[in-house]
Write a structure and sequence with these properties.
single chain; alpha+beta; five-stranded mixed sheet; 15 helices; extended
Length: 528
């Protein structure tokens, strides 16, 4: 029975070549072999007919079995592999070290080019990248299969992305962050939330609410997903986010670390918005600098940056263009909206009123309504609906949006019926908040300048040398300047007790009933 090839390979022409040679040898033994047979086999393998004759001679030398010997190559030894590891993949430097130690054999067989060819032959690109760049470089050469597309709302992917653009946020430059949810099957951007600073769980919940709802100012895409893939970011692993998705039976899939390929759809959108939108906006953070640009000075002035509201409008317009006008190859050159409409999978929608408490965190301990309102987090919250309920012993449950402490929502402690909102009674005005922030910023800049000056004064400078010599300090201070600095430091580091103000707070006199007086020191007599 003829042997069948293995289903998973390996498929090599050597076995087919050996079968053809055996066929020719049988024809020769039967005295039916002609030169025409040899030419036909040579044409089939795209070689010269003399090559086929050499194959037959090889089979005759190995008892009728074609056995290719192959060319002899220079191979790497364990000592050579160790040298490559020590030099972090620098082949030329490893060759010099091995040549100096005499570990390369004869020079005719171990030239630099031969050593390079041996390294490229025995180490694949991923292994060579691991030697020079580590694990991160090796992962660049990994091969990943495409995930099955599935249907809409089968799986969503979410992530944060920092905008590569400086914008003007209330008179200061900042890089906004974008949080969005992407449908894997159709590449539709279902929900988005933008923050002028690094996002937290409130941005995730706001983007999730925007993704679930459909209609009005929300996009016509959304619903309740079956799965949501997230990375191991601290915000995505929070209890609030986990509980929010579990409320509707959505499975939160936490991906292993260092595996962005497992949520490639949202990673592709992150890269697309950087190349398609941010690069053409004023304030692009990665704009190349020219030789005239002053080092350490921002490339974009504050008046050249766009306002934060304008940035939000541009991002939302780009999202609308991505969903409705941009065609994608893996969607058969259709837009995400066309792929969404072509999918007839039913969508589980929700009413906006049902999501009233979706983005709110709850406090487990019931709170009591007093004459000053409800006390929580070191402040009192009240509203006009509380009149007539103060000091009556009524208890409520409190819910609030993460990091939003100016307003809370109150519910009945027993029935969980919504009672109404409550606002912080001692909330400062916007003008006071801006002035406080400016004062804090000035103080931070002042101490940052003092820290830079202190580091500069504390760093030692040494003379340059071309010979073997001990280090020689350069920045010696004059004697008078050094004495003045020492006196100033000693004044700052004086004992705390010397700064006491006994005139402000009188110290109590020791009492014989409460304090144990010290024993008198015995008098010593002089020895005669």
């Amino acid at each position: 029975m003829p042997a069948t090839p293995p289903p998973d390979g390996p498929y090599d022409t050597t076995s087919l070549r050996a079968a053809a040679v055996r066929r020719l040898l049988r024809l020769r033994d039967a005295q039916r072999l002609t030169h025409h047979h040899v030419r036909i086999v040579a044409e089939a393998f795209c070689v010269h007919w003399r090559t086929v004759r050499r194959w037959m001679d090889n089979a005759d030398a190995h008892n009728g079995t074609y056995t290719p010997t192959g060319r002899r190559h220079f191979t790497l030894t364990p000592a050579m592999h160790d040298a490559l590891v020590r030099w972090h993949g620098n082949v030329t430097a490893a060759y010099r070290e091995l040549a100096g130690d005499g570990l390369l054999g004869t020079p005719s067989r171990a030239s630099l080019a031969t050593f390079h060819r041996a390294v490229n032959r025995e180490l694949d690109p991923g292994q060579r990248a691991a030697l020079s760049e580590g694990e991160a470089g090796r992962r660049q050469h990994d091969v990943h299969r495409l995930r099955p597309h599935g249907n809409r709302n089968d799986a969503w992917e979410t992530d944060h992305v920092e905008a590569s653009v400086w914008v003007n946020v209330e008179g200061r430059r900042s890089k906004p962050w974008i949080t969005w949810f992407i449908d894997h099957a159709t590449c539709v951007i279902c929900g988005i939330a933008i923050t002028p600073h690094r996002p937290s769980r409130d941005a995730i919940l706001a983007a999730a609410r925007d993704a679930i709802l459909c209609g009005d100012h929300h996009r016509p895409f959304g619903g309740i997903p079956h799965k949501v893939r997230v990375d191991r970011g601290r915000d995505f692993l929070s209890k609030s986010v986990d509980e929010a998705f579990k409320k509707f039976g959505t499975e939160l899939i936490v991906l292993p670390p260092y595996s962005p390929h497992l949520k490639g759809t949202v990673e592709s959108v992150n890269a697309a918005v950087k190349h398609m939108l941010f690069k053409g906006m004023p304030g692009y953070a990665h704009t190349p600098r020219s030789s005239r640009d002053r080092r350490g000075r921002p490339l974009w002035d504050l008046q050249d940056l766009i306002e934060y509201e304008t940035f939000i409008a541009l991002v939302l317009d780009w999202v609308n263009w991505w969903n409705n006008d941009h065609t994608i190859a893996r969607l058969h050159r259709r837009t995400p909206a066309q792929a969404w409409q072509a999918d007839l999978t039913p969508i589980d929608t929700l009413d906006p009123d049902d999501l009233h408490t979706y983005t709110l965190e709850h406090i487990d301990v019931p709170l009591k309504i007093t004459s000053k309102g409800v006390r929580w987090n070191g402040a009192y919250y009240l509203d006009e609906w509380m009149h007539g309920h103060g000091s009556a012993g009524e208890t409520v449950r409190l819910r609030h949006e993460p990091h939003h402490y100016h307003r809370v929502e109150l519910y009945d402690a027993q029935t969980l019926r919504y009672r109404g909102p409550a606002f912080r009674s001692d909330e400062m005005s916007d003008r006071q908040s801006q002035r406080l922030e400016e004062a804090r910023r000035r103080q931070a800049d002042h101490y940052a300048a003092k820290a830079r000056r202190a580091r500069k004064n504390a760093s030692a400078r040494y003379a340059a040398t071309s010979t073997v010599a001990p280090p020689q300090r350069l920045n010696h201070l004059p004697a008078s300047r050094a004495a003045a600095d020492l006196r100033e430091l000693q004044t700052r580091e004086r004992d705390v007790t010397s700064e006491a103000r006994p005139d402000l707070l009188h110290r109590p006199q020791p009492s014989s009933t409460r304090w144990t007086p010290p024993l008198p020191t015995p008098k010593t007599q002089d020895m005669p």
